[in-house]
Amino acid sequence: MLETPIILNKQKIKNRVMKAAMSEALGSREHAPTEKLITLYRTWAHGGAGLLITGNVMVSAKALGEPGNVVVEDERHLDLLKTWASASKENGARCWMQINHPGKQVFKGVVNEAVAPSEVPFSKDLQRFFPKARALTEQEIITIAEKFGETARIARKAGFDGIQIHGAHGYLISQFLSPKHNIRQDQWGGSLENRSRFLFTVLNCVREAAGTDFPVSVKLNAADFLKGGFSMEDSLTVVKKLAGAGVDLVEVSGGTYENPEMTGLSHQSSKREAYFLSFAESVKRELPNLPLAVTGGFRTRAGMEEALSSRAADMIGMARPLAVYPDLPLKLFKRNVDGVTMDRKKTGIPFIDQKAMLELAWYSLQLERIGKGKAALPQMSARKALVKAVIKNGTEVFKKRRS
């Protein structure tokens, strides 16, 4: 079952394993793909996954999520993008570019200004890491949506096989969907129809710019898991609308920086591997023909096969396991292994551990090693990763970025 091909918008994916997006932060100072990034994706392509989803590619250099983001807002880096796409498609893999705008979820010092649907701050303990954001004007909202379309057009020209619109994890589209963070009184806020308007405007711009025959996925939260936030009921309604709009694949995830459920913080005692499988099952009951990818928690072939055979998922999304074992899909196909164990990375510093901030840094270091042509280091300690991350942030995060 795991090795069975799937057709998405007439595009054949050779198996059901999807390398889900991780923010690699391996772009150059000019926000272009680097040799490290190209090497990383070539390694994943030869690791056996049928579909690779890139990490955050930003639609504007004025809206970076973090240092090292690749930005595609014009064709200045087209040759490098072509090289990246070509390397990602070796060994018969497909590669879809994930495109994103961080909104206000951008660390201090990375951009000159943060923007959001509304001037709503994060919780106090988190807001200290982020600049105060101003509310977007209506014209700015439309312009950003058009930027998504332009990025999709360039991605197709560069040779990528499809696009994923990032609508999850607390970034700009997710902020618009959330009644907690979107308190606008115009057509972009209020009712769920209005709060989802930005997502569907982005989708329309992508379709118009890249063509209806170019596969488009949307990554969406099952829920934000925040009081007053985007709920599972809201999400199911939006998924139904996405299905009606002809989206080729919906990837189910969940959580935001405020409550990072995508890292599995509250799922440690669950008997089921996948964090959001129950929500996926509820989607499939109403939309059995909608191609669905589920990401988060899969660790064993048996768990993956169960999700596929029950039709709860059509594709198995894996992220962190492939940051440490990039050839895990091949090993699963050959039955050299039955799965992997991924321990939580803890420093003993409660705030860092509770917010999973160190987790991100630890895995980012593994991606960088693979990009250098080295093997990942599963035994790297959490504290060593923290020290390395602090050193890197001290030299990069607070440098003024080119706008």
TrEMBL record:
Coiled coil: none
InterPro entries: Aldolase_TIM, NADH_flavin_oxidoreductase, OxRdtase_FMN_N
Entry keyword annotation includes Transmembrane: no
Source organism, top-level taxon: Bacteria
Gene Ontology terms, MF aspect: FMN binding; oxidoreductase activity
Domain NADH:flavin oxidoreductase/NADH oxidase N-terminal as annotated: residue spans: 4-333
CDD domains given in the database record: OYE_like_2_FMN
Keyword Flavoprotein annotated: yes
A Pfam cross-reference name: Oxidored_FMN
UniProtKB keywords: Flavoprotein, Oxidoreductase
Protein name listed in UniProt: NADH oxidase
Organism of derivation: Alteribacter lacisalsi
